Amino acid sequence: MSRSSEAAALKRKRPDSSTQGLVDAELVVLNVVKSKKNQGVWVADVKKEANIAPALVDKCLTSLVKKNLIKKVPSIQNKAKKYYMAVEYEPSEELTGGAWYSEGKLDKEFITVLRETCLKVIGMMKVATVEGIHDFLKKRKVVECCTSQQVGEILNSMVLDDSIIEVKSTGLGEYHSIPIGSVCYRIAVGVTSGPKTIGPMASIPCGACPRISVCTPDGIISPKTCVYFTKWLDIEF
């Protein structure tokens, strides 16, 4: 046997250093928790599958947490239940609720800020796609840790409550920079006069601009190059 083969064989025989020093009961409990991967496991199910004394399972769980081999994770579906997961996994969205939740609670403040910001951007662009809004937010760093998927989900919720409308690009006029047939969004008629948008939209300079009819996202006259709009955006945000 070559030296490289011997080294490989020796490496395979070496026990996992992270589990060295664990008693048999701890190994059993750890294996049960690891087997659930990113779904986590309820403490009652650990006791059932480990098939050892419940009090000993509790002791092992506490010990494994202290040794940083497993961790407690919140569950939005069963907030009263204790769930455990191996430290190498990140909780699934089914368990935590995804990006809309923080420490097991719905992040209402983040949702409100993102909704209001998306409405402002659509009002500025007149018509916008999910990607266009997300790129704008990312470049301006208006909302931190915001994904394109989150923007899409927020826009869908805004369509349902009639804040905005979903349309498809014709490739003409205001849609000239958006591929024909692409899904995009506009502010719904009458929304700007309602209580939902009177704060952020009341002072927008676009309403008094004499060149508004020829203003387009990528045109010579554009919100991106407008000094008045930039000043308004900086103040509002």
TrEMBL record:
Keywords: DNA-directed RNA polymerase, Nucleus, Transcription. Belongs to the eukaryotic RPC34/RPC39 RNA polymerase subunit family. The gene is LOC101248509. It holds the Pfam family RNA_pol_Rpc34. It comes from Solanum lycopersicum. It comes from the Eukaryota. SUPFAM superfamilies: Winged helix' DNA-binding domain. GO terms for biological process: transcription by RNA polymerase III. This is DNA-directed RNA polymerase III subunit RPC6. GO terms for cellular component: cytoplasm; nucleoplasm; RNA polymerase III complex. InterPro entries: RNA_pol_Rpc34 (IPR007832), RNA_pol_Rpc34-like (IPR016049), WH-like_DNA-bd_sf (IPR036388), WH_DNA-bd_sf (IPR036390). It is found in: Nucleus.
